[in-house]
What does this fold into?
Amino acid sequence: MSAAAHPTSKPAVNGAAPASSSKPQFRQQPYRYRRNHHRSRRNLCCCFCFWTIIIVLGLALLAAITGAALYVLYRPHRPQFTISSLRISKLNLTIAADSSASYLSSLFNLTLSSFNPNSHITFSYDPFTLSCLSHSVLLGNGSIPEFTSATNNQTVFRALISGARDLDADSVTSLRSDLKKKGGAPLTIEMDTKVNVKIGKVKSKKVGIRVTCDGIKGTPPKGKSPTVASVLDAACKVDLRIKIWIFTL
It folds into this structure.
């Protein structure tokens, strides 16, 4: 009985694996392009940030150079304010017998001067709002009309400051203590307004300023004649109501 013939595979040559009859398959790499795409976007973003920082730094440097040039060229200075005199025509504190109510009436006559020490800068002021205080107690309000302070110019104003209002217990205690002080009650004049600055044909936007004048001492009048407050130690300080201004004053 003869054995059935079976096809035999050829032996591997030199240990090599037998050849496969299937066609070779190639695997695609879909992520390589995505990685390159993300890298390109990242590089573009870094380049944009770099040039943005360079432009901002350049503008800041240009602004600093311009400001320094203006300061050297024009030497800007803050405007100056001086209290010439303060007359107290009325300063009455009325307290009810049972201390249930307190009423304050006041009348002040203020003489004020404004000086512009700059040779090339003009200040244009909006109307001023005036307040007279003794520590934190408001004694009266007043106003000064708008005006323009030309270069190296001095302007003198006269204004009335008056008040009539009820006071709370804390204000009464504070004011009574001030009025009993030897030499007079400490008084402060506050003036709020807006101003723009003009150099040649260039004009800044309006900014808020506050002028605070302290070192004043006054006593209430005892008769019809007004008393004159002491202004020998009075000093006025000009503060910007914002932190940044186009000029360094």
About this structure: The chain has a mean pLDDT of 82.
